[in-house]
Amino acid sequence: MEYGIQMYSVRDITKDDLRGALKRIADIGYRWVEFAGFFGHSAREVRGWLEEYGLKVSGTHTGLKELDEDFDATVQYHKTLGNRHYIIPGHDLSDQKKLDAFIEKVNAYAPVLAKEGIQLGYHNHSHEFQPNRDGSMIHEQLVCRTDLRLEIDTFWYYNATGFSAKGILERLKDRIDFIHIKDGFRGGEGKPLGYGQAPLREVYDTAKANNMLMVVESESLQPDGLTEARLCCEWLKAQEKQ
After folding, report:
1. Looking at residue 180, which CATH number applies to its domain?
2. DSSP string covering 130-152
């Protein structure tokens, strides 16, 4: 099994030493990387580091505004990097008007990106599964009104609903290439894998059965990002023996 990590997990070192962070992530045992910023480095430079350390890019968390501000340069950066999954990490969709505008925009961008070999996706937090004040339901509309690829953050789903993400992973499996596998406590407190209360084993088994890449995101930096990354990798490897 190969696993990925969202680089936000080690944000305590990426800003000052992205190259070093990539090397140490590879040393821990991760083989896929999902970026959360490039800190001024060129795409060619970052791609060289990936090749040097035997890493592959699973996707990036990059906002919609980058496409709005300079579509051509943004697309070229991701193509040079070798990234095929442009994931919007969240957006202000707090009422129906904002939802409508966002959906119109991503429905316009998605086919253009597809022609460049890039799939457009969306990463959820908890609020997408809860009604806005006007009653609109964000995730439901993204599913029904767009063709976005869906990166399900399984902890935030659990936090919002109290349920394992197994059901939504099965229901939307044709729209899911990879998931965030994450642990923590309801209320939003994140923990490394195996240290919280999220129903991880069901998530692990479902992702494995459906060939979904599992991307670790551990956000609390307790005591630091690399320690959490190592604990998470150890938990994942232990599941292979069960």
Report:
1. 3.20.20.150
2. S--TTS--HHHHHHHH---EEEE
